[in-house]
Specification:
Elements (H helix, E strand, L loop, with lengths): L1 E2 L5 H10 L6 H10 L8 E2 L8 H10 L5 E4 L6 H11 L4 H8 L23 E4 L5 H21 L7 H14 L6 H14 L6 H10 L36 H8 L8 E4 L7 E4 L2 H17 L2
Helix pairs in contact: 1-2, 2-3, 4-5, 5-6, 6-10, 7-8, 7-10, 8-10
C-alpha cells in the first residue's frame, strides 16, 4: 500500500481504513493527536494482515518502506548506467543522466572532474518508490568517496586522487580476472614512469562514444584518430575516467603489484585473463598466438 507525498494525517488514516489495514480511521487519528511530533513518511508499505492503529502508526513513523534493489555492475560508463536506471522503472534515467553530467558534488575532492564519470560507485542499491535520481546519485557518490579515501590511505604509488580515478577506470575496463588488476595497474604505472604511450583500447572506445562515433568495434583507422581519449596518439592518461570502477580497481590504481611488465594481451581460447610480457618480442609472440587461435575458430 502506498502513502502519497504530502498526504494529511486524515488522508493517510482513510487510506489505511479503505485498504483494510486498520478497522477504523479514528484510533489512528487518536494516535496522531498524542504523537504530533512524529513525521509519517510517504512511500510503499507492506501489511500482511490487518493491524492495530498504533502498529500502523509506528510503521509509518519509522519510515520502513518497501525497498527495491537496483544493481549497477562494475565498469559501466554513466550513459550505460542511465539505461539500467531507466529500465528499472524506479527513477528517471533522463534525470540520472542530467545529474551525472554535473561534477559539483565532487568538485572539492576532484577539481579536474567535468562530469561524475568515474565517481558513480557500482553496487546494489535499495530504492523506495519515492526515491529520486538524486537519491541514487548521492548514494553512489558516498560509496565512491569511501572507497577512494580507503584506497588512497593505503597507496604504495605516487599518484594523486584524480589520476588514480582515471587509472582505476582503465584497469576496470581492461580486466575482470580475479587477482589480475594489480598486474594491469603495474603495466600502466611502468609505462607512465618510462614515458610510454598507454595504448589502452577502451580509452579509444570511450572517446568515440562521447562523439557518437563508435561502430561496435575498434577499426584500424580508430588507432590514429586524434580525439583526446586516444592513448595510442596522446601520451599519459586520458583527460578523464572512461567508466566507473569498483573497489578492487580503485585499490589497484593506488597500490599496483610489483612487476616490470610493459605489455599484456588476452589469453587465447576460453582462458581467463591476460599474458603479461616484459619485452615487445615476447608480447608480439603472445599476440600471434591469440590471432592464430582467432583464425582457427572462424
Amino acid at each position: 500500500m502506498e502513502i502519497a507525498r504530502g498526504a494529511t494525517s486524515r488522508q493517510i488514516a482513510e487510506t489505511l481504513e479503505s485498504n483494510g489495514v486498520i478497522e477504523s480511521k479514528w484510533p489512528f487519528l487518536w494516535e496522531r493527536f498524542w504523537n504530533r511530533e512524529t513525521t509519517l513518511m510517504a512511500g510503499e508499505y507492506v501489511f500482511h494482515r490487518p493491524v492495530k492503529a498504533a502498529e500502523a502508526f509506528a510503521l509509518l513513523g519509522s519510515g520502513r518502506v518497501r525497498l527495491y534493489p537496483i544493481t549497477i555492475p562494475e565498469g559501466l560508463n554513466r550513459f550505460e548506467i542511465a539505461e539500467i536506471v531507466a529500465n528499472s522503472g524506479l527513477v528517471s534515467g533522463e534525470e540520472f543522466l542530467a545529474l551525472s553530467a554535473d561534477p559539483t558534488p565532487v568538485k572539492e575532492l576532484l577539481p579536474e572532474a567535468e562530469t561524475l564519470e568515474g565517481c558513480l560507485f557500482p553496487e546494489t542499491y535499495s530504492l523506495a518508490k519515492t526515491s529520486t535520481a538524486k537519491d541514487l546519485v548521492d548514494a553512489m557518490i558516498a560509496q565512491f568517496r569511501e572507497a577512494l579515501e580507503e584506497a588512497h590511505s593505503h597507496r604504495t604509488a605516487e599518484i594523486d586522487l584524480w589520476r588514480g580515478v582515471v587509472l582505476a577506470s582503465m584497469i576496470e575496463k581492461e580486466t575482470k580476472a580475479q587477482g589480475e588488476r594489480g598486474l594491469v595497474s603495474s603495466v600502466f604505472h611502468n609505462r607512465m614512469r618510462l614515458g610510454m604511450l598507454m595504448q589502452c583500447d577502451p580509452t579509444i572506445i570511450y572517446g568515440l562514444v562521447l562523439e557518437d562515433r563508435y561502430r561496435g568495434r575498434i577499426h584500424l583507422s580508430d588507432l590514429s584518430d586524434p580525439h583526446p581519449y586516444n592513448t595510442y596518439v596522446h601520451s599519459g592518461l586520458p583527460p578523464g575516467p572512461i567508466a566507473n570502477p569498483g573497489r578492487q580497481s580503485i585499490q589497484a590504481a593506488f597500490a599496483p603489484s610489483e612487476s616490470d611488465f610493459l605489455f599484456f594481451v588476452a589469453k587465447p581460447g576460453h582462458q581467463i585473463g591476460h599474458v603479461f610480457s616484459r619485452t615487445l618480442r615476447s608480447h608480439n609472440r603472445a599476440v600471434r598466438e591469440l590471432r592464430r587461435y582467432e583464425r582457427s575458430i572462424r
